[in-house]
Each structure stands twice: as structure tokens, then as C-alpha cells.
Design goal:
With 136 residues, the chain is an all-beta fold. Strand 2 and strand 3 form a beta hairpin.
């Protein structure tokens, strides 16, 4: 009997490739903007005083922000970070489309080091950031 050639086995179909992980959706853009901001030793009227990037232990440091695009009922947060550790979050009301607000932190003993203060919207978007050093 003549030899018969058997057909080659059909390759198994490849399993579908796993779906590529989807990137996290971008943060919702804020309609609030901070157009002016800074850290200083006081606020008089609508102006920051003693603006600096270096303060001594014992100083009251103010973070001042001018928020635009707000409506009554909106709010921002001032987040005070010492060496990357959250030392306080202050929620501040925004009362109109052009609003100035501020928060203050006293640099007590143990405050020496690098500080960052951020203005954030409700979604956690950073709208402004100031950094300074507290020295003995």
C-alpha cells in the first residue's frame, strides 16, 4: 500500500493577548486657578507682606492665594508639608470669581527644615505651591 502523507497538524489558535492596562483617567481639570500666591510674614488688606523663602523658628508664616473662577460654595485647601509630612490641611471657602484667602502656621521648635505649602482644589489638583526653609 502506498505511504500516505498525513496532513500537518493545524496549529492551535493563539489565545488573545491580554488587554493592555488602561492608564488612569486624567484628573478632572479644575475650573479654579490660583493667579497669585506666596508665603510671607503677614497679610495686610489684600497684600502679602514679608515674602521670603526663609523664615526663623518662632515666625508666623502666612500662605496667601488669589483664586479665580470660583463660585459661592467652592473651596480650596491649603496643605502644609514639613519634610514631606502633612502637618495640617486647612479648608477655605471661595466666595466669588475673584477671591483672596490665606492660612497661617507658626514655626514652633522642631519646625526647622524644608516646608511646602500647596493650594489644592476639591479633586486634589495642586493649583499653587510655595516652598521655604525654616531655620533656627
Amino acid at each position: 500500500e502506498p505511504a500516505r502523507e498525513e496532513p500537518a497538524p493545524r496549529p492551535e489558535p493563539e489565545p488573545p493577548a491580554p488587554a493592555a492596562p488602561q492608564p488612569a483617567p486624567p484628573a478632572v481639570p479644575s475650573r479654579l486657578t490660583v493667579t497669585e500666591y506666596g508665603v510671607g510674614t503677614g497679610v495686610e488688606g489684600q497684600h502679602l507682606l514679608g515674602e521670603s523663602d526663609r523664615f526663623r523658628v518662632g515666625t508666623k508664616v502666612w500662605f496667601w492665594t488669589r483664586v479665580r473662577g470660583g463660585r459661592p460654595g467652592d473651596a480650596i485647601e491649603h496643605v502644609w508639608l514639613h519634610e514631606g509630612r502633612n502637618m495640617g490641611t486647612i479648608r477655605l471657602a471661595v466666595g466669588s470669581a475673584d477671591w483672596r484667602t490665606r492660612s497661617v502656621k507658626t514655626m514652633y521648635d522642631g519646625s526647622a527644615g524644608r516646608w511646602t505649602v500647596e493650594a489644592r482644589d476639591r479633586a486634589g489638583n495642586v493649583l499653587a505651591r510655595s516652598t521655604f526653609v525654616c531655620v533656627r
